[in-house]
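Input.
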Amino acid sequence: MMKKVRLGIIGLGAQGGAYAGFITEGRVKNMEIGAICDIDPEKKKVAEEKYPNVPFYENYIEMLESGDVDAIVTTVPHYLHPEMGIEALKRDVHVLGEKPAGVYTKQVKELNDFAATKPELTFAIMFNQRTNELYQKVKEIIDNGEIGNIRRTNWIITTWWRPQGYYDQSAWRATWEGEGGGVLVNQAPHQLDLLQWIAGMPKKVYSNVKYGYQRDIAVEDEVTALLDYGNGATGVFVTCTHDAIGTDRFEILGDNGKIVVDDSKKVTITRLRKPESEMSQTMDMMTVAKLVMGGDTDELYGTEVIEFESVWGGQHVAVLENFAANILDGEPLIAPGSDGINGVALANAIHLSSWLGKEVELPVDEEVYLEELNKRIEEEKANPIKK
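Output.
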C-alpha cells in the first residue's frame, strides 16, 4: 500500500514553488515530491539547488510516463490545465488542477467528461478557500436554512491591486492568447467558486466590464455583474485590480436574516426572530419605529459576530492533504475537480454579456463564447498592446 503520494509539480513558478516548499518542510504529512517539471532552464537550476534529490523533467509527458509520480498539480498558464489533466488521467496519474479549471467551459467539459471515464482516479481542484473555516461556516448557515431563502447576494472584492509593472513582467500575462482574461480568470476565481458554492449558480448574468480601463492591458481590470438567480433573488459581483485601498465585503440577505463577511476574517450573522414577511404583516408602527430609530431590538433579532484567523499556506496544505487522503484512504474531496467548471461558466457569462451588450443565460453557448474569445485573440495579434 502507498504510504505517501508522490506529487509531480508541473511549473516551478510562485505557486509551484510554494507547494514544493510546503511539502519539503513536512507540512503535507501524506505527500512527497516525486518530480518537478518546467520548460525554463533557469527553473532547472533552482530545482537542482533546492531539491537536489528530486528528478527534473523539461517535458511533462516524460514525467507522467516516468513512474516517478502518482499524481500531478498543474501550476501552469490557464489554457494548459485541461490538456495536462487529460494527459495525466490517460496515464492513470491522479490530478490536482490549479484554478481556474480552464479558460472556457468547452475545454473544461472535455476534461470533466474524460475524468468521469476514470472514476478510480482522483480528480480535484485547488479551491483552497473551501477549506477556510469562515466560508465553511457561511455555507453551513445557508445550507441549514438559518437565514431562510436567499433574496440577494452582494460581493465587492477589490483587494487585487496590481501595478502596471505586474502586467509588464511577462509577455503572456493579461493577454487573451496567453491568459484568457484578466481579473476574472487570474485573481477572482476563488470568489466566483465560493459565490456559487454558497449561494448557487445564477440563471442569467448582465455585466458591465472595462478592458484596459486603468492599466495598459487588453483584458478586464474592472467588472460589475448583475446576477439573476431565477427565483426572484438577485446578486451583484464587483471586482477590479486598480483599487489601491480595496474592499472585501460579502453580504447575503435571506428571508430570516443576513450574513455579512468583512475582509474574509469577520462574519456578522443577524437572525430575525420572525421571518421578514411575517414582520411586515404583523408589526405595529411603534415597533417599526424602534427598528429604524435604533432602539432595543433584541426582541426583533439577534446578532452573532465570529472572527477567524488564517495561517499563510494552511488552506493550500489542507487541500493537498485532502487530495492525498482521497488517493490513499478514499477520504471525500473538499473540491472535486468537476466543480471547477462552475466558476469558469460564471466568468464566461460575465465576459460574454459585456461582449454582446446584453443579458445572457447560463450555461452560455460554448461555441459563441469561443468564437468571441478567438476574435479578441486575433485583434490582439493584429494590434498588440505588449510589444
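Residues 130-309+343-382 form a domain with the Dihydrodipicolinate Reductase; domain 2 fold (CATH 3.30.360.10).
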